[in-house]
Automatic annotation (TrEMBL):
Pfam families: FAD_binding_3. It comes from Streptomyces actuosus. It comes from the Bacteria. Coiled coil: none annotated. GO terms for biological process: response to antibiotic. Keywords: Cytoplasm, FAD, Flavoprotein, Monooxygenase, NADP, Nucleotide-binding, Oxidoreductase. Its cofactor is FAD. Its EC number is 1.14.13.-. GO terms for cellular component: cytoplasm. NADPH binds at residue 38. It is an enzyme of class 1 (oxidoreductase). SUPFAM superfamilies: FAD/NAD(P)-binding domain. This is Flavin-dependent monooxygenase. An FAD-requiring monooxygenase active on some tetracycline antibiotic derivatives, which leads to their inactivation. Hydroxylates carbon 11a of tetracycline and some analogs.
Length: 371
């Protein structure tokens, strides 16, 4: 019985690893040409996903690459008022440590036997028990697992649902080697996440393991074509930064100084999500994990859910090695309930971030008793 996983992201790799731990083989088809073909983005905070790493037999290796101090947080209002500062004590438990996405993906990749991941295989469609790839090749399968992310090409085999735009646009910028180039800004941002919220705009600056501070500027309640009308010239980084500063009227100069210090990388991201509570009638030969199954607003759940999906589907298949249909049903029953709760919470947090007084609301979210 052949298990084919499409997508070597966190979900697909966690599934392959848990199957391997239980003596089951799988093949992962990934469209990227190699593990280094594309930057893997910034930091992830891993909380519920730690269970997946435990099931994968990798929890000690994970703690070795996780950054506990990345749990530090500062929350401010656009006028510069500091509402909350949390510094993580050295002996604090690693409840939500930050990890570099590339390091976590490397940990999973290195834990798999050579040849498990077939790079350069872009899945196009499935027919008659075979996967078909963009280069004309094909491969047989008994169970096809779509772990191919937000714009999954496997998803249409199960549902017509598509991600919808959330009226939220993010522009990602960053300051390289901040300790050396801008020590004053480094001290301001601190060791973890530095959040400025208000007026339908968010600035989230986060220290990465390589000394870069990544900054996401989020613009909420914006129409779907906002990037075209925003006046941000993405092909001219210096002018783009100047325009971003214009889009922050009344923001304290220490925040606009962060934007001024950024390098030439200016990346636009449109934020979309699948409907909350998406399900489909179970099929014995196809299922979905991770963003392919339940893309959510990016508020810290997606990677954790993808890891858990992969691990729990792996455990279900190991428990029913001769009955994939039963394994898929068992996995989907639990996944639908868990991901619906996480998607609902993520949608609520997203609405909160979009509100004019988001910083005060976020403070109440973190400190419901006002302490
Ligand atoms: C800016 C940002 C910050 C985030 N921060 C956090 C965080 O702090 N905590 C958290 O929990 N989540 C976070 N998330 C969400 C998280 O990154 C995703 O939910 C998670 O990566 C989903 O994993 P996945 O394995 O489902 O998909 P992906 O990681 O997207 O992997 C999908 C893989 O499939 C491959 N693929 C796609 N199409 C094909 C095809 N046709 N054929 C073959 N291969 C294909 C892709 O190349 C990719 O390797 C963040 C997201 C963003 C955008």
């Amino acid at each position: 019985m052949t298990i084919a996983i499409v997508g070597a992201g966190l979900g697909g790799l966690a599934l392959a690893r848990v199957l391997h731990v239980h003596g089951m083989d799988a093949v992962v088809y990934e469209r990227e040409a190699s593990r280094d073909a594309r930057g893997q983005g910034g930091m992830l905070d891993i909380h519920s996903g730690q269970r997946a790493l435990r099931e994968a037999g990798l929890i000690d290796e994970f703690y070795a690459i996780a950054r506990g101090e990345g749990q530090d947080m500062r929350l401010l209002e656009p006028d510069g008022t500091l509402l909350l500062q949390e510094d993580t004590p050295d002996d604090a438990p690693l409840a939500r440590p930050e990890v570099d996405r590339a390091d976590l993906r490397d940990l999973l990749l290195d834990s798999l036997p050579d040849g498990t991941v077939r790079w350069g295989h872009a899945f196009v469609h499935a027919a008659d028990g075979a996967l078909h790839f963009a280069d004309g090749g094909s491969a047989p399968y008994d169970l096809l697992v779509g772990a191919d992310g937000a714009n999954s090409r496997v998803r249409p085999l199960l549902t017509d649902a598509r991600p919808a735009h959330l009226g939220h646009h993010v522009v990602e910028v960053g300051i390289p080697d901040i300790d050396r180039t801008h020590p004053d800004l480094a001290a301001m941002v601190g060791r973890g996440t530095y959040w400025v919220l208000g007026g339908g705009i968010s600035l989230a600056a986060q220290r990465n393991g390589d000394g870069r501070v990544r900054i996401g500027l989020g613009f909420y309640n914006t129409p779907e074509d906002w990037f075209a009308t925003s006046g941000i010239p993405f092909d001219d980084p210096a002018a783009a930064k100047a325009r971003l500063i214009d889009l922050l009227p009344g923001w304290h100069p220490r925040f606009t100084a962060l934007i001024e210090a950024c390098d030439e990388m200016v990346v636009p991201r449109s934020i979309t999500a699948l409907p909350v509570g998406l399900t489909w009638p179970s099929r014995p030969d196809v299922t979905l994990i991770g963003d392919a199954a339940h893309l959510m607003p990016p508020v810290g759940e997606g990677a954790n859910m993808a890891l858990l999906d992969g691990a729990l589907l792996g455990l279900a298949l190991a428990a029913h090695p001769d009955d994939f249909a039963a394994a898929v049903r068992e996995y989907e029953r639990e996944m639908f309930e868990r991901s619906t709760a996480a998607a609902r919470m993520s949608a609520d947090l997203h609405t909160l971030l979009a509100s004019p007084d988001a910083a005060r609301k976020m403070l109440a979210f973190f400190q419901p008793d006002g302490d």
